[in-house]
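Q: Here's a chain of 332 amino acids. Please give me its 3D structure as tokens.
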Amino acid sequence: MSDDMAIATSGLAKSYRDVRVLDGVDLNISRGSVFALLGPNGAGKTTAVRILATLTEADAGRARVAGFDVRRERSAVRRRISLTGQFAALDDAQTGEENLRMMGRLARLSRAGARQRATELIQRFDLTAAARRRVGTYSGGMRRRLDLAACLLVPRPVVFLDEPTTGLDPVSRAAVWEEVRRLVDDGAAVLLTTQYLEEADRLSDSISVLSAGRVVAEGTPAELKDRVGGRRVRAALARADALDLAAGALRDAGFDGVTVDRRARTVGASAPTGADDLGRALDALAGEGIEVDEADLHRPTLDDAFFSLAGLTPPGDAGAEADDDALLEARS
């Protein structure tokens, strides 16, 4: 593991009873970059963050954060990280402003510095009107914004954001994205877990996909998309009951990678030759009397890459198991 890395792990493993949550995870995260850790519920993302933030210990493997060993040098690690988890950790009896000032003082800011920084973040996260209200009166979204402000109160070389924008409105989410970019511009390393693949696509410099506690793919967003394949055709049908017939028609016409999204009422397939494949697909569907509302040719999205590389079935696809969520929940 190189000390040039902001975060480096080797063979990280963790089990809870008989469930192997992490199984030999290697991560290398550069300074001044955003690293996204993606995976379904129960894949081990939060466990990895907790180990790196010294909140729990790994059963095996090594990890260094900001150049310090997370097991032997916990205090040094904690002085160099910021963390926001999936649930806001705030004092309900204090106002939003008081929470931030208190945390600033605990982080050894001067009284004036804590006041100034609290004011800046309250404005940035659109909490000015509620700044002097008790946090116990805040909505879930307001609490989340205040928790993020607290996490970003004092600049640290390593920042952990565990699903930071869950439950936020688009304006607040954009404010978080802007703050993340500021952190990276200042040289910080940000480890991000998120359920919003668009967020990972827009923010991250590199991505690791976890599945069943193992890293199954890693690379830049563009590299992961390229691994799924080239262009695809997609057709939205007029009638949902024609989806299976349409999928069969595409397979009979020689198309590979045929998928069905019942929720969106679309069929898709690989299109290595581009526009010629789009025309051929439409001919195949028309030959079966299938009415198409619209059709297009597109490159894989990060959503396509995530589902493919994590070995998951996209919601609504043919063959999806009804108990997928229950299985993932059991792993967590």
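Q: Can you summarize the key feature?
A: The CA atoms of residues 34 and 119 lie 26 Å apart.
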